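[Q] Does anyone have a clean structure-token version of this?
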Amino acid sequence: MDISIVIPLYNEAESLPELFDWIERVTTEHGLSHEIIFVNDGSTDNSWQVICDLQAKAPKVVHGIKFRRNYGKSPALYCGFEQAQGDVVITMDADLQDSPDEIPELYRMICKEGYDLVSGWKQKRYDPLSKTIPTKLFNATARRVSGIKNLHDFNCGLKAYRRDVVKNIEVYGEMHRYIPYLAKNAGFKRIGEKVVHHQARKYGTTKFGLNRFVNGYLDLISLWFLSTFGVKPMHFFGLLGSLMFILGFIAVVIVGFGKLYSMHAGMPYRLVTESPYFYLALTSMIIGTQLFVAGFLGELISRNAPERNRYQVEERI
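[A] Here you go.
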């Protein structure tokens, strides 16, 4: 099979028939064998009934996954990726803002140009400034942290993947925004970008609020930390803890010697415990010790984790 199209959705019943017909028209024109996997993320409208009707209409093409409740986009993509059988896996949103006309070119870039992942870039957006400005700041930060300098739109739902990519990454929480970063960390370095057409929403309302930008930054920090120190926590906590302890210890020594020098010179002096620097130094030593212990415990947990020796092997001979 050429293509698996994974479509997560939440309350998009109105747009599904039109999206299905559009995908069928494009794939038929270009002779692409395909499957469409609709992942119903706990919709409260009749989205699932629409999916069932489409499946009855095209049983070999349409597949559906129904969640009991709303889990989020990342779990929906994870389950869709798990079921996908196509050589190329394409994701798109169900709200008709992503154009299926982009599918053939995305497929070609994966198969002919050798990309592992191609991300869409909605260069011209039909969104309000309250959404576009935070999006630009978010993408700039993501480029900086991830090191993937050529991507302008990490959060674009329209992406294409070589099947090996989706089978070797784990999308969880709200990490769908950072699938290119996850792919890079898994060893898939051929990451490209394609300018795609962005359409104004035709039905319903957006399901995402401004809180996604706050969550997005927190997820980015988590992903950076896990990819950098996830298997070697002692390198972070141990180093930081050691530095804080040493600085605190030096400060205590300086305060102590300052008092001894004043006593020896016959100068007026105060008790060590009357100096605020003593307490600051003591606090630094305590926090440093705690960080060191946290790194040690993290190292023990990491060494006993079942996936500690799970590596991405490309091929064997």
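[Q] Thanks! Anything notable?
[A] The first strand starts at residue 3 and ends at 9.
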